[in-house]
Amino acid sequence: MSAASKAGSDSSRQLSLLAPVLAEVVPASNRHNLFLIISEWMRTSFAALQLGVSPDTLHRRRESNGGFLEIGRDYVLGPYRNSPLVWNVQNCRDAFNQNGLRVRKEG
Q1: Alpha-carbon distance 84 to 40, whole Å?
Q2: Among the ranges given (4-8, 25-29, 87-91, 92-96), the one the predictor scored with the smallest mean pLDDT
Q3: Given this structure, which CATH class describes domain 41-107?
């Protein structure tokens, strides 16, 4: 089993264990957002909170804006132009760390 499929199955398992509790307290319309919180892939506002940066900082650090966060590895686009970006929090954390090390080494 690959690391990605294992991570996905772990998240699915966590969600299935929480499902009975969530059904009582979380409206059905919000359960998709809750899954994104449990998984390592999160929408911008949740990812920013986990990383301790602003949502604007995440957007500025994308490689399309001259930053160091890579599409496909650190974030993915949705299927439509107005779809939210989804971020891999651990990959972003690693990228912020690597960039910090690089900047300190250069300075």
Answers
A1: 16
A2: 4-8
A3: mainly alpha
